[in-house]
Amino acid sequence: ANPTRSGQERRPLDPAVASLLRTQLRPKQNVVDVGPGSGSFALEAARAVAPGGRVLCFETSPENISDLLARAHASGLENLKAYSYAIGQTVGWQAVPGAAMSERRSLDSFH
Protein backbone atom coordinates (compact mmCIF):
# COMPACT_ATOMS: atom_id res chain seq x y z
CA ALA A 1 0.00 0.00 0.00
CA ASN A 2 1.09 3.54 -0.70
CA PRO A 3 -0.93 5.86 1.56
CA THR A 4 -1.24 9.61 1.17
CA ARG A 5 -0.61 11.94 4.12
CA SER A 6 -4.35 11.89 4.86
CA GLY A 7 -4.15 8.10 5.28
CA GLN A 8 -6.12 7.39 2.12
CA GLU A 9 -4.63 4.51 0.17
CA ARG A 10 -3.23 5.64 -3.17
CA ARG A 11 -4.37 3.04 -5.68
CA PRO A 12 -3.43 2.94 -9.34
CA LEU A 13 -6.20 3.79 -11.75
CA ASP A 14 -8.07 0.76 -13.03
CA PRO A 15 -6.61 -0.09 -16.48
CA ALA A 16 -10.08 -0.12 -18.05
CA VAL A 17 -10.80 3.38 -16.72
CA ALA A 18 -7.39 4.63 -17.90
CA SER A 19 -8.07 3.20 -21.35
CA LEU A 20 -11.51 4.84 -21.45
CA LEU A 21 -10.01 8.21 -20.53
CA ARG A 22 -7.38 7.93 -23.25
CA THR A 23 -9.99 7.08 -25.89
CA GLN A 24 -12.55 9.72 -24.85
CA LEU A 25 -10.39 12.70 -23.88
CA ARG A 26 -8.44 14.77 -26.38
CA PRO A 27 -5.89 17.57 -26.21
CA LYS A 28 -7.38 21.02 -25.53
CA GLN A 29 -10.38 19.60 -23.64
CA ASN A 30 -11.16 20.62 -20.05
CA VAL A 31 -12.10 18.22 -17.25
CA VAL A 32 -13.61 18.88 -13.81
CA ASP A 33 -12.86 16.31 -11.10
CA VAL A 34 -15.01 16.72 -7.98
CA GLY A 35 -13.43 14.95 -5.03
CA PRO A 36 -10.25 13.66 -6.69
CA GLY A 37 -8.98 12.01 -3.50
CA SER A 38 -5.56 10.55 -4.27
CA GLY A 39 -5.77 11.89 -7.82
CA SER A 40 -5.28 8.86 -10.06
CA PHE A 41 -8.20 9.85 -12.32
CA ALA A 42 -7.17 13.54 -12.39
CA LEU A 43 -3.56 12.77 -13.27
CA GLU A 44 -4.51 10.45 -16.12
CA ALA A 45 -7.02 13.02 -17.40
CA ALA A 46 -4.33 15.74 -17.28
CA ARG A 47 -2.06 13.58 -19.44
CA ALA A 48 -4.89 12.91 -21.90
CA VAL A 49 -5.94 16.55 -22.43
CA ALA A 50 -2.41 17.92 -22.84
CA PRO A 51 -1.38 20.00 -24.60
CA GLY A 52 -3.85 22.84 -24.30
CA GLY A 53 -6.41 21.26 -21.97
CA ARG A 54 -6.69 21.44 -18.23
CA VAL A 55 -8.07 19.55 -15.26
CA LEU A 56 -9.73 21.47 -12.42
CA CYS A 57 -10.04 19.56 -9.16
CA PHE A 58 -12.27 20.49 -6.23
CA GLU A 59 -11.31 18.77 -2.98
CA THR A 60 -12.15 19.51 0.66
CA SER A 61 -9.06 17.84 2.17
CA PRO A 62 -5.98 20.11 2.28
CA GLU A 63 -3.78 17.00 2.61
CA ASN A 64 -5.25 15.47 -0.56
CA ILE A 65 -4.76 18.74 -2.44
CA SER A 66 -1.13 18.92 -1.34
CA ASP A 67 -0.49 15.30 -2.33
CA LEU A 68 -2.27 15.71 -5.67
CA LEU A 69 -0.33 18.85 -6.59
CA ALA A 70 2.96 17.20 -5.56
CA ARG A 71 2.19 14.18 -7.77
CA ALA A 72 1.24 16.45 -10.69
CA HIS A 73 4.46 18.44 -10.27
CA ALA A 74 6.55 15.24 -10.07
CA SER A 75 4.89 14.06 -13.29
CA GLY A 76 5.54 17.36 -15.08
CA LEU A 77 1.81 18.09 -15.37
CA GLU A 78 1.29 21.85 -15.29
CA ASN A 79 -2.31 21.68 -16.56
CA LEU A 80 -3.82 20.37 -13.31
CA LYS A 81 -5.16 22.85 -10.74
CA ALA A 82 -6.70 21.98 -7.36
CA TYR A 83 -9.00 24.13 -5.27
CA SER A 84 -10.14 23.74 -1.66
CA TYR A 85 -13.85 24.00 -2.34
CA ALA A 86 -16.79 21.68 -1.97
CA ILE A 87 -19.31 21.38 -4.79
CA GLY A 88 -23.01 21.17 -3.93
CA GLN A 89 -26.50 21.75 -5.22
CA THR A 90 -27.07 25.05 -3.45
CA VAL A 91 -25.28 28.33 -3.04
CA GLY A 92 -24.28 29.05 0.54
CA TRP A 93 -21.95 28.18 3.37
CA GLN A 94 -21.49 24.73 4.80
CA ALA A 95 -19.16 23.49 7.50
CA VAL A 96 -16.85 20.83 6.13
CA PRO A 97 -16.34 18.14 8.79
CA GLY A 98 -12.81 18.40 10.17
CA ALA A 99 -12.08 21.76 8.52
CA ALA A 100 -11.04 24.76 10.55
CA MET A 101 -13.20 27.88 10.25
CA SER A 102 -10.55 29.49 8.01
CA GLU A 103 -10.79 26.53 5.59
CA ARG A 104 -14.56 26.74 5.07
CA ARG A 105 -15.54 27.85 1.62
CA SER A 106 -18.63 28.90 -0.29
CA LEU A 107 -20.59 26.17 -2.04
CA ASP A 108 -21.57 27.06 -5.58
CA SER A 109 -24.08 25.28 -7.75
CA PHE A 110 -22.87 23.87 -11.07
CA HIS A 111 -25.34 22.41 -13.57
What can you tell me about this protein's structure?
This protein is α/β, with parallel strands linked by helices. Helices cover 30% and strands 20% of the residues. It has three helices and six strands. The longest helix has 13 residues.
Task: Give the secondary structure arrangement, pairings included.
Elements: H1 15-24, E1 30-34, H2 40-49, E2 54-58, H3 62-74, E3 80-83, E4 87-88, E5 92-93, E6 106-109
Parallel strand pairs: 1-2, 2-3, 4-6
Antiparallel strand pairs: 5-6
Helix pairs in contact: 1-2
Features:
3 helices; three-stranded parallel β-sheet; disordered C terminus; three-stranded mixed β-sheet; alpha/beta; 111 residues
In helices, the fraction of residues equals: 25-40%
Strand content: 15-25%
Largest sheet: 3 strands, parallel
Mean pLDDT: 78
Order of helices and strands: HEHEHEEEE
Tell me the total number of β-strands: 6
Radius of gyration over alpha carbons? 14 Å
Strand order of the largest sheet: 1-2-3
Distance between the termini: 36 Å
Class from secondary-structure proportions: alpha/beta
Shape: globular
Q: Which residues sit in consecutive blocks of at least 5 with pLDDT less than 50?
A: 101-111
Number of distinct helices: 3
